[in-house]
Amino acid sequence: MFRLDLRLMSFRAMATIAIVSPGAMGAGIAKRLSDAGCRVLSILSGRSTSSRRRAAEAGMHDASLAQIVCEADWVLSILPPDRAEPFVRDFLNAIESIGEDVTLPVFVDCNAKNPETAIRFARLFSSSSKSASGRVVFLNASIVGLPPEGTHVPTFYASAERNPMDQRALEKFATLAQHGLRVKLLTGDSADVRDASALKMSFSGIMKGMVGLYEIMILAAHTHSPAIADALLNEMRSSLPNDLAFIDKYVPQSFDKAYRFVREMEEMAGFVRGHINVETKEAGTTNVNEVGQIYDGLASLFQRLSESADGGGYMHKDGSSDVDVLRNFAEGAHKAA
Predict the structure, then answer these.
(1) In Å, how far are 134, 181, 223, 302, 305 from 251, measured between CA atoms?
(2) Lowest-confidence range among 5-14, 26-35, 135-144, 177-186?
(3) What predicted TM-score, i.e. pTM, was given to this entire model?
């Protein structure tokens, strides 16, 4: 029979934690866990040479999904948002194909998604054919902050369904803190599995929304004329120096991540759309203005930047790409700091 024995998962020395995949965040988390004595698994098949090197430096060991299902105590899914659901389905399919005496890992989805997506993932787990005989637990988590570096550690916010088994697993998840990570549980009378996603959407909607807003207006100013972009930079030097510092730090970081931000903005649009709309009445007709369209626009921006970062996309009259324009502005912001 499938079983989930939470007594065995006390994060003893050499606990086995699978992290999928070995990107900057996943590898950074893996490094802290492996340094603390944990065994860290990841799926490296098909990964690039640089990804394999990053995984090796983080102490990650190559494993198949079948091995992970059989050997891991916990599975942390840390993926680009558009790959999160396919991995959930792959994981559940893998459970179907293994023997009946396997102690199942707790699955923790740490990806950027709106609360309704979190509910859909949780339902996929609870509807698994193995659910009735000792189901695998699904926890919802979000990571707030940049990848671990030096003394900086991002925060895992975690939430769960309100049944006793999931709540016990949630409490066990907090023991990751013993291994150098920062974990905060979202609990309380009104808490549910969606909460980690709601917090992630709110926080990242502010941070990445600000990045996108700056980028839109810098590009619009430059498209009008490079002289106006220069004038904007000079004005911000005197009136908005803190904003220039933000641009200097975060705008250049967005270029290589823009492809990931597309789906994240779409998830944010869904989150806002489900909570805030503005109704207006005109000639007896009620019109619903969806505030979430802001993030639909940002998704389009990051798609455009993703193409620019890959060497394509829109070219300005002066021959510069979007990334060129934004990088030059950020360099000017750095000099002004």
Answers:
(1) 47, 27, 18, 12, 11
(2) 5-14
(3) 0.89
Distance CA 242, CA 251 (A): 14
Q: Report the Cα 151 to chain-centroid distance in Å.
A: 21
Q: What is the pLDDT of residues 249-292, one digit of tens each?
A: 999 999 999 999 999 999 999 999 988 877 666 666 656 568 89
Q: Tell me how far apart the alpha carbons of residues 230 and 202 are, in angstroms, rounded to a whole number.
A: 32
**Same domain, yes or no: 171 and 209:** no
Q: How many domains does the chain have?
A: 2
User: Cβ contacts of residue 317 below 8 Å, gap of 6+?
Assistant: none
Residue with tokens 């950074």: 28
Alpha-helical (H) ranges within 36-187 are 49-57, 65-71, 84-96, 115-126, 164-173
**Residue 331, C-beta contacts closer than 8 angstroms, at least 6 positions apart:** none
% helix, strand, coil for the chain, step of 5: 55, 15, 30
Residue 1 lies in a domain: no
Give the CA-trace dihedral at 278, 281, 282, 286, to 10 degrees: 90
